[in-house]
Input
Amino acid sequence: MNRILPLLIILAFVLSSGCTTRDIAAESDGNKIKVGIVFDIGGKDDRSFNAAANVGVQRAKKDFPIVLRDVEPGDPTSIEPALRAFAQYGYNLITGVGFAQGPILKQVATDYPQLHFVLIDSVADLPNVASLLFKEHEGSFLVGMIAAYKNKTGTIGFVGGMDIPLIHKFATGYEEGARYVNPKIRVLKNYVGITDAAWNNPGKGRELANSQYEQGADVIFQAAGNSGLGVFDAAEAYNKFAIGVDANQNWVKPGHILTSMLKRIDNAVYSVVQDEVAGKFKGGVHVYGLENNGVDYALDQYNRDLIPAWVIEKVDQAKRDIIEGRIKVTDAMVQ
Amino acid sequence: MRLIRELVFPLIAVFAAFLIGGIIVLLIGDNPIEVYRLMISSAFGLFDALGNFTFDNWGYTLFYATPLIFTGLAVALAFKCGLLNIGAEGQLYIGAFASAWVAITFSSLPGWSLIPLAIFAAIAAGALWGAIPGILKARFGAHEVINTIMLNFIAVGLVSYLTQNHYKTPGDPIMQTVPIADQAQIVRFHGLLSPLGIDFPQRIPLNITFLLALLTAFLVWVFLWRTKWGYEIRAAGASPSAAEYGGISVRTQIVLAMALSGALAGMVGINEVLGYRHRYYHDFSAGYGFAGIAVALLGRNHPLGVVLAAILFGALSRGGLFVDIFTDKVSKDLVQVLQAIIILFVAMEALFRGTFSKFLPAPAKKA
Output
């Protein structure tokens, strides 16, 4: 008997759990709108991409009566169960951050047509999914101009994270903006890697930046997530400039961050939550560009004295030109 | 039964881990009873949060357990020959890519021949990748721990290169191959149970590979304890010099054991590629190869123990995700803490055997 007893105890325990999962979540959430967000592999503290999304939902939590729960999957196998967990619990608005979640989110959204979904950086063609796209190439054009105006050596650099069409958008826009100012400028381009480990390798980012600074670049635009922090370290070590991305990173190395290419994911996510709370959720593709403050360049107390006023004027003029169609920036993702 | 007695230690380890984990949860500021109820009910519960009957929880738990059964068996079998196979991660990637390659390349074959061919490819490729360190050890005495770890890196590099440059859909930002041929997709539990009138949702990726894993565990038991070749492997592991004296070539056993071990790890690919994603998806393994070591350890290197330990770890993965999402303070890291404590306690069993042996069931009388 005493041999079987432990097994019996476990069996009883397991079977009793077959009772309902009325648990912490269900009891405390009540009747509020429930918002769930599944972050990308980089985690919500990457100071750029995921952090921007987090800022948006946290701001929404302060302003609206919502229940907000988030999860950092950590590996690709956990994304689908995380999205499905939110759906199972009847969460009204479920957000997937990053294009890697696109196909999976589309599958889950198909299975739960009565719930609303948000997808960032990719398109899922369903009426209950709001796909948020950004015109990164336009914002990159502006920071390319700033880089070219600041440049003294004839060479600037670009360090991308993953070598994929989305990041080529940043690179192409940056190069076009730089050439708009200086047609003969040399633009060095390197990528940290080809898998999503490329977002999380500051050491490699630093090495690539070192090499570009050695080749004469004096401004490097990083579009590499967490790896970009390595680029900033190199800028400080070489006493040169870098440009941040996604969130405002001017404060990270004051005096060395020339500007940041803002991708206002926070505003975009906030406005979708706002719509959901008001019952006005709109599915389909939402494009955010210069015209609706979706992308921009950052100007604040950390970089105001790095950029002369006349440069700001020129860049703002170009901004108006792009919005009104007089300048066309190539979108490298459109084949 | 001696088996029950052997299981007592791992059970004590699991209970102790949950106890300590509960204290940690208390210190973090959440209610351990609620956290564990959420964890267990999302792993094994038959009803969802709204009170509806659901297969989801068991379905996902067993689906997560499937690769761990394979890698656990791989590590356990190698260990029976006295070898530490730390290369299950690389072996499973090679096996997965091989089965994807077959299912993509030979797409003109009908399902009844393509699927077995893809399964065979996973097994053969894994066996090859396992045999390499086996041969290096047998021929040169090179330690298999180092070689298997290094081969993990080579495997990942090789497979990434092939995926990125030859088998990816052009313009696809996600690192994955093109989809496999439709007829190579193996049947999920939905397909198995719907002819019986049971509505098991199609979206749950639990598929027939789970049953294959159980069968494989049984076959490994038969092989190791009921065949001559299994006996030779165990003898070579228990006492190499005695085995040599008895006429067994230990070097052959090493290669054989490592090849079989790699083959078992390669079978993870069947579940992942043919049963779930229907393509090779880079980085799909959430550390299955290394978790297999823990599973083998907890399962005391016995196929039945491995199956039970794999289900436990699968449950922890499933439950951990829900605990992460639906509690305020506890994160998925709690699962890793629990796993770590379990492994620590199992490894400390010598301490338990000595100090607490008087609480154990009496051993069988010697004949």
Notes: Chain B touches chain A through 47 residues (CB under 8 Å). The longest helix of chain B spans residues 111-140.
